[in-house]
């Protein structure tokens, strides 16, 4: 098989196993336009309109229905920038900001200390905790993972769907941690969101019929580290992985005719499940 046959005709540096159903040219996720059967390349979609430019209703879309953009890494860059900025702020404030944004407040982290955090109505901590890091190794590992996993997913899903996936995965990790972890167990970091992206990558590769062995091996290794290394909140990893996998499945397998509706319902169901979990745990902790 020639090199051209397995690489996107618009992006020669990207290997692919998908071809346009009309011209049979190989296309990567960024170039895929969902059709009634399979995928088409942007040129075939444009030429099919008879005007040389696809009308707005038939504009090229990603595998999940997102719009093609000039910079498919924008949301990934913004999320990375926010994480780094918050880490710097935590270092500068000497723990004051950390205490205000972590899943459990400093008083609750002391055995027998008073409740402080989500149980006291500070639900924002479920999200802010996912942007907190303390050690350079912690943030470096998470940000490298985000930079590696984020762009391909953002390219395939589109910006809005990718952002929803990231945030829901992070919230899912926080919710499971809040539900089952001891009140005095610190929990912070983007690991839940990263595991959600890892699960989503597996779903996307399966959807595109790509070789899944590399991502499966990576997932297994990360799960081994999760349950064997000390000072790792496995609850955040597992919660993020489950939510990210399910949300991604709903996004890439939604039927074309009702794609937006199914995707919105998938995200809404994930958010509702998170709210229920947090509500149940809050009732357990408060009189």
TrEMBL record:
<dbReference type="InterPro" id="IPR035952">
    <property type="entry name" value="Rhomboid-like_sf"/>
</dbReference>
<dbReference type="InterPro" id="IPR050925">
    <property type="entry name" value="Rhomboid_protease_S54"/>
</dbReference>
<feature type="transmembrane region" description="Helical">
    <location>
        <begin position="131"/>
        <end position="150"/>
    </location>
</feature>
<feature type="transmembrane region" description="Helical">
    <location>
        <begin position="236"/>
        <end position="254"/>
    </location>
</feature>
<dbReference type="GO" id="GO:0004252">
    <property type="term" value="F:serine-type endopeptidase activity"/>
</dbReference>
<dbReference type="InterPro" id="IPR022764">
    <property type="entry name" value="Peptidase_S54_rhomboid_dom"/>
</dbReference>
<keyword id="KW-0645">Protease</keyword>
<dbReference type="GO" id="GO:0016020">
    <property type="term" value="C:membrane"/>
</dbReference>
<feature type="transmembrane region" description="Helical">
    <location>
        <begin position="78"/>
        <end position="98"/>
    </location>
</feature>
<keyword id="KW-0812">Transmembrane</keyword>
<protein>
    <submittedName>
        <fullName>Rhomboid family intramembrane serine protease</fullName>
    </submittedName>
</protein>
<feature type="transmembrane region" description="Helical">
    <location>
        <begin position="187"/>
        <end position="205"/>
    </location>
</feature>
<keyword id="KW-1133">Transmembrane helix</keyword>
<feature type="transmembrane region" description="Helical">
    <location>
        <begin position="212"/>
        <end position="230"/>
    </location>
</feature>
<dbReference type="Pfam" id="PF01694">
    <property type="entry name" value="Rhomboid"/>
</dbReference>
<dbReference type="GO" id="GO:0006508">
    <property type="term" value="P:proteolysis"/>
</dbReference>
<feature type="domain" description="Peptidase S54 rhomboid">
    <location>
        <begin position="121"/>
        <end position="252"/>
    </location>
</feature>
<feature type="transmembrane region" description="Helical">
    <location>
        <begin position="162"/>
        <end position="181"/>
    </location>
</feature>
<comment type="similarity">
    <text>Belongs to the peptidase S54 family.</text>
</comment>
<keyword id="KW-0378">Hydrolase</keyword>
<keyword id="KW-0472">Membrane</keyword>
<feature type="transmembrane region" description="Helical">
    <location>
        <begin position="261"/>
        <end position="280"/>
    </location>
</feature>
